[in-house]
Design goal:
Blueprint: H1 2-12, H2 16-20, E1 25-27, H3 29-36, H4 45-53, H5 62-76, H6 79-85, E2 87-89, E3 93-94, E4 97-98, H7 105-110, H8 116-124, H9 129-149, H10 163-175
Antiparallel strand pairs: 1-2, 3-4
Helix pairs in contact: 4-5, 9-10
Length: 177
């Protein structure tokens, strides 16, 4: 959301291209925190600071807000996950929103390879586009099917045990070769 507002303002003042010389992209921390801290009642930054760090801060002070976000991200110990799965390039930002990267699970949904429900299940299982791609590269359809149908602690499939769901994903990756 913030990147779109920033994009529109910088475009209005004709300095977006200059900005892009110094900034390569953005990280979406809301879905990141939902993966890192599943089951929280709320994901507002103030709540996370209190719950995770046992700290409070001046949320309406932009410097304090930025510093707290940095502290929360660092304390998660998963900066690599943030960069790998929740980063998007300045090239993907438009006045209407962020366009999914060609190498993202959102792109798979946009191309009708997977449904919205499957997208949600993939996200909830902490899988990324790269996980799916690696499973396909190692064992083709079987790799994707085994990854999706792997049983969780409650005995349910990680994503889906539906043959057709895995087949569409495998066909997508096959078409890229």
């Amino acid at each position: 959301f913030d990147s779109i507002v920033l994009y529109n303002q910088l475009k209005y003042y004709k300095i977006w291209n200059h900005f892009c010389k110094y900034v390569v992209g953005f990280c979406d921390t809301l879905p990141f925190f939902k993966v890192v801290y599943p089951g929280f009642d709320c994901y507002k930054q103030e709540y996370l600071a209190q719950k995770v760090l046992n700290e409070s801060y001046s949320a309406h002070n932009s410097l304090a807000d930025s510093e707290m976000l940095q502290t929360l991200v660092k304390s998660s110990g998963k900066v690599d996950v943030l960069l790998a799965d929740f980063f998007y390039s300045t090239v993907q930002v438009t006045s209407h929103g962020v366009q999914p990267s060609v190498e993202s699970i959102e792109y798979l949904q946009k191309q009708n390879v997977i449904s919205k429900a499957t997208l949600k299940k993939i996200k909830c299982s902490s899988l990324s586009y790269n996980h799916l791609k690696l499973a396909f590269e190692r064992k083709g359809f079987d790799g994707v099917f085994f990854l999706f149908s792997e049983k969780t602690s409650d005995g349910k499939a990680r994503v889906s045990s539906n043959y057709k769901v895995a087949k569409k994903v495998a066909e997508f990756f096959s078409s890229l070769q």
